[in-house]
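INTERNAL TRANSFER SHEET
From: sequence group
To: structure group
Subject: Aerobic respiration control sensor protein

Please process the attached sequence and return the structure record in the designated field. Keep the field labels unchanged so the import script can parse them.
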Amino acid sequence: MTDYSLSPWARVLSSSITRFGEFKTAAICYTLFLTVSLILSSMFYYVAIGELHLVDILAVVFFTAVVSPLIISVLLNSIRQLDASYAYLDSATKQEKLLNQTLKDNISRLNIEIDERKMAFHAKHRAIEELRREIAERKKTQQELAQQSMLQRSIVDSSPDLFYYRDNNGVFAGCNKMFEEVMGKSSSELIGKTVEQIFPSHFLAEVLATDKEVEQSHKALTIDVGYEVNGETRWFELRKLPFINDDGDYIGLLGFGRDITSRKEAAQALETAYKDKGKFIATLSHELRTPLNGIVGLTRMLLDTELNKQQRSWGNTIFSSAETLGNIFNDIIDLDKIDRDQLDIATNSINVSDFINDVVNFAGLIAEQKELEFDIKRNGILDVYAQLDPTRLRQVVWNLINNAVKFTQQGKVTLECSRENRVEGPWLVIKVLDTGQGIPPEQLAHIFDMYYKAPDLKGTNAIGSGIGLAVTKALVSAMKGIITVNSTEGEGSCFTVQIPLSLCVAPTEQSYVGRGLYILLVEDVPLNAEIATNLLEQRGHEVLWAETGEDALSFVETEDDLDLVLLDMQLPDINGDVVAKQIRSDSHFDKLPIVALTANVRSAEKELEGISIQGALAKPINTVKLDKMLADLFGIKQSECTEPQLKVSEEALEGIDAHLLDIETIEDFVNSMGLVVFRRSSQLFEKLSPQYQQELLTSLNTGDREEYESVAHKLKGAAGSVGLNDVQLHAKIMEHGAIDESDEMLKQWLDVLADKINEGQKALHLFLQQLE
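Return from structure group:
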């Protein structure tokens, strides 16, 4: 824009000055002015006057020569100023262009920024809308979660089961209403508290022990817990579960408890009913067998005298009827044992042929009553000795023959006995066939069912008790045999019994080597009975347990094969010396060995003075002394154990309160019966000890000092059986002071007992862990 504002001559002059410099340009301009002045003046005068006047021309030239420097100076100065102005304008123009460009760039950036701000503004609006929607959704979700939480809380609180949660420090972090009710405290009083601040001291050890087990094993644990609520004991099935995070770390414990008080009471009532039923059956059997044995014995004596045919027939009828009644008693007793899963088989070495002959004599008598023919068939070599239970097998055959006679009106009953050699070994096969009414096909499937009664010929009246065949099948199964039946209605039936034969050599008289003893154990403490039974069964003997003196006397009367009586001296009904005296009052039991079980051998020997007994064993039973007693009485020597004996080192004992335990007894039992069996016995003590404590408390509250003494005695024996020496000694103090000490002292002893049991069980757990 500036280039077009300057005239050409100015540009030329400026260019000349730039090219030649100011001085040369001034000289050129001065010369040019003189020349132009000369030419113009000459032309003026020539044109205007028509002639040239030299003077005038020179005057003009002179004037030009004089004025030109000034003009040139002004002109050059103007050019300089113009150049400066031009340069300034050019610089200003460039700056303006640069400023314009910068302005354009700024405007462009501003436009871009404005666009970006518009986009950001729109994005902000969108984000705000999204945020609003998210907030709304979160509020909705929170409301739903709050509603779900309230619903869950309502469900948890309305649950009849208790629930609680504790963190890994044992601090309560949550619970429901049922737990508050059981603890008798509100949630505000429970949450934030530790187990030590909540549970009573006698309950604390078990809680901590089970919590530690769950924490270490990371496995759920279910236990039965008795807890006092509003003055009465309520039982809960408590399930403790570990609370594990995503990394597998233990971060807390969940507890769920279901009230099983009614179930526990029902189980206890059922157990009591079972015991009562067993006592009733044993008592009934004893009371009925005594006169029945008299009938059988006198009938045998009568049949040995001179009788006419009719009298002998009557005598045979009395004898067979009494034997049949005895079989019914056996069925009833075995039914009770089947019901309690206590049906055992005691095998002896017997001659199979002699056994069959004994059965034939009985079968002939009962068949003769109904004027039926009785036939016996033998196949194979039967004059062999085998390990069989003669009492059980005789009971099976007599039941089948009785049934055959009962359902046969005319014809005959046949007994077939045969020995079959099979791949798995020899078998004894006994068949009882009859020509009676037979069994309809639809009844065959139920013939061995308990309490099933077959109808008579008219199909109306049921015959029999309904237990004989069921007991028979159970006995055959216990002997690892098989019983089957085939029948054709109106033609007769065939019952087949198959028993595996374990052949053996003929026994020598009074030899007990190679066979187990049949031992009656009289012990009122279940834990003591279990340990003694385990010790004896581990040595291959069969044990019959009686919990009272009356039961013991009944078993002595009814069990014909007893080899030994282990008799506890202190029983809940009658003392051991009275039981021993009554046994010895019958000459039939003169050769039956009796060994006393007692905590005080000297005291027992004084009580039994004048009564024939064969020894005394101190409780808890020492296995060495037990083996010595069996060796002295029966010549049975315990085989030497080749396995390494478990023993805890002195170093390991340093971390255990070993003074609370009877280390020698524990190691003796563990090495004799095995760690698993002994641990089961210790768990039984853990289960029974709360019951003993509750019974002690109940007897104390009711003022029944004798019951307090009796329970303390049982606890003393139970604790000694699992090596809890400190608990045993304390229970002994409680037993001896039960009658004379004050109620306050008895209550104080009971409070101390809980701590001693907890400490002893903890020490026992640690000790058994060292044996693993």
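Handover comment: The longest strand covers residues 232-244. Residues 482 and 498 are 5 Å apart (CA to CA).
Transfer complete.
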